[in-house]
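ESCALATION

Customer reports they have been waiting on this structure for their group meeting. Please prioritize. Original submission:
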Amino acid sequence: MFDKIELSFSPYDTAWVAMVPSLELPQAPCFPQCINWLLDNQVNDGSWGLHNRPSWLVKDAVLCTLACVLALKRWGIGEEQMNKGIQFIMSNFASVTDEKQQTPIGFDIIFPGMIECAQDLNLNLPLRSSDINAMLERRHLELNRNYTAGRKEYLAYVSEGIGKLQDWEMGEEEIFLDLTTCAMAFRLLRLNGYDVSSDPLTQFAEDNQFCNSLKGYLKDISAVLELYRASQITIYPDESVLEKQQFWTSHFLKQELSSGSIHSNRFSENDSSQVEDALKFPYHVNLERLAHRRNINLYNVDNMRILKTSYCSLNIGNEYFQKLAVDDFNICQSMHIEELKHLERWVVEKRLDKLKFARQKQTYCYFSVAATLFSPELSDARMSWAKNAVLTTIVDDFYDLGGSEEELLNLIDLLERWDVEEGKNCCSEQVEIIFSALRSTICEFGDKTLTWQGRNATSHIVETSMFKETKCLRNKSVPTLDEYMENAYASFALGPIIFPAVYFVGPKLSEEVVRDPEFHNLYKLVSTCGRLLNDIQGFKRESKEGKLNSVSLQMTYSDGNMTEVEAIEKIKVVIKSTRRELLRLVLKEEGSIVPRACKDLIWKMSKVLHLFYMNTDGFSSNVEMVKAVSEVVYEPISVNM
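Update from on-call: job pushed to the front of the queue and completed.
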């Protein structure tokens, strides 16, 4: 099923193609195979269209059936099929004016136009003249409505219904750019490493440009949604096109959502949910496993689109795909639950639960990696990330709250000397517990690198640990902004989480690669984002504790001319530009020596940080975070098939 995509069949479109005459022999069809398809695919009730048609789609069936009857009449064949088709049309003619029926785009122009075409072909449709006149009057009103943005494109789209009223000699032969496809192609190509320009999206940089398109005239929510998603993949500082596009699309979607206009038809339930989801979780915050769960729940097995007619692709909206996704999610989740249990046992075995000053956040630490590196084969990467995240949290708490001056210096000394006898050289039980856990965990995953990499990388993991760098936190002097920013990445302590984990995501990593400036730059960028996000959320608390961070420094060096809000906004600008540069390096193919899987891990860390610090200080047990943890780790998906 994955290998063969079955496109939706369309009797309506096939019928119009069937009417095209041959250039060499105008008395014969140019595409006789289309005529044969019409003859072979009439439904038992005399209609053409979906076999299991819902009751609210009769109007579409009448439209399709009339188009097919006209095609057969045009070439004078299939009299039996024509008669059955006419009988269906007459039996269901009341649906034409039934407001409860789903109305295809342009129906009030196209259907009367086809009635005129039937009269020209001397097709006997036993309709009352009053009904015909009423339809023609509706078409006249529709064609003579006041000119609005995008109307020219709309009339071109439904031009088959205009017939003799259209001046075909002066009509422009335009190929319409499908902006939905264009935006999606841009996003997917760029995310997969292709260096594609954002220039094709220039024509949709402003909302008025969109309004002048067919999709704008139709207020196509899916088109705006794709433009919004594309606008988030900004990787260059001069892509003002995407920034403008993001501004107006987000405003448009919020407005449509609040006005309730997205809920105006029976196909809009999923649309509104997708819009809410996209606005709440932009690309740089959207953790994969949470996104997968939402997509599974939003997946529409009865996927149908109504344009000029109905379209339904059998293996795009498919219950088997949904079942596969549900089973895959739940199987992986069962593995994740066992890994979390192992992590909790490890905390007890290492006596980390005895450290009363330390936050016990192993569930959050595990969630952060299970939501991003979720595949079964990445178990070692998950456990490395989770265990080192637990240790990093504990050491951070030790430096902030739990350790005395003597203990802090003792721990730093032990880490620098490394190969020391634990019990004799530790000044307290707390130091012994922490150093023992750090040393054994680093050695555990250092040994595992031998299996994954063919070499033992313990020495590199030790070197890249953050714990030597924490000495800079002890400096009580007030740094300049530049000094703070230069050291911000080191003080955030992502080293012991990121560097061991990259050895377990697949690619072989030579000593040259892991020591290359490209790797360090990626680490520096993600750490800077994390430090500044933490500063924003922790500003009030740290100010009360007499601690400085980037927000307070901005205010300090402004000589009282900058408010807290202004300082935070300035920091957000720095975060945005840093994140953009990080994404550029992650997606860069040419000249990059760091494997994409390793760069993806660093980008996933950035996503985790943005989610954790979106509304709180990261580890606060707010309702949203508790819900997210439950959905990824504990709660299986159950979907009514």
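Sent to customer with the following note: Confidence is low (pLDDT under 50) at residues 468-474.
Escalation resolved.
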